[in-house]
Amino acid sequence: MKLRIAGIVDDSIVDGEGYRFTVFTQGCPHHCEGCHNPETWDPQGGRIEDTDKILSEILQNPLLQGVTFSGGEPFAQAAPLAELAKKIHSHGLDIWSYTGYTYEKLCSSDDPAVHALLDELDVLVDGPFVLSQKDLTLEFRGSKNQRVIDMNATRKEGRVVLKYND
Fold first, then answer.
1. How many Cβ atoms sit within 10 Å of the Cβ of residue 165?
2. What confidence score (pLDDT) does residue 107 get?
3. Angle between helix 51-59 and 78-89 (nearest 10)
4. What does the pLDDT look like over 11-51, one tens digit per residue?
5. 0.90 exceeded by the pTM?
6. Residue 164: pLDDT above 90?
7. With left for phi above 0 and alpha for psi between -120 and 50, is residue 48 left, alpha or beta?
8. What distance, in Å, lies between the first and last C-alpha atoms of the chain?
């Protein structure tokens, strides 16, 4: 499948736990004030990549713990990301995703691709970046309203389970 991306960082330590490969998707409807990636907002910007090519790049690095989908807004391209995530999982890597939507908003979506992507995630960092709640001491998020959700525990318990309680 094809995916519109802004770029890739193949050796991130700031986009989730461990050594990570981060895919920055292109296109974002949120336009959060103070966004650190406003160049990703234009849905026609960036470049088109094949998800199998991205997977091949990921698999070249045996040191990776996982892959992070960031943006832009990953859920604006849920179908190709869900397919990519499933393939990544089959190789034993974990999947994190950032989103400007809340988990509850995503759960109420009638788009099957959104649910397919949620099903593949190990961790979801949800909520828009809110400049007035910016806090540089938070782990893996930029503002206090955002949550780092342990998706495996959330699915098991049937309620939102946070990975970090600060």
1. 7
2. 98
3. 30
4. 999 999 999 999 999 999 999 999 989 999 999 999 999 99
5. yes
6. no
7. beta
8. 38
Three-class DSSP labels, the chain? CEEEEEEEEEEECCCCCCCEEEEEECCCCCCCCCCCCHHHCCCCCCEEEEHHHHHHHHHCCCCCCEEEEECCCHHHHHHHHHHHHHHHHCCCCEEEEECCCCHHHHHCCCCHHHHHHHHHCCEEEECCCCHHHECCCCCCCCECCCEEEEHHHHHHHCCCCECCCC
Question: What is the length of the chain?
Answer: 166
Q: Which two tokens stand for residue 135?
A: 């806090």
Nearest to 32 by CA among 62, 69, 63, 72: 72
Q: Which two tokens stand for residue 94?
A: 């974990």
What residue has token string 């986009």?
15
pLDDT at 166: 64
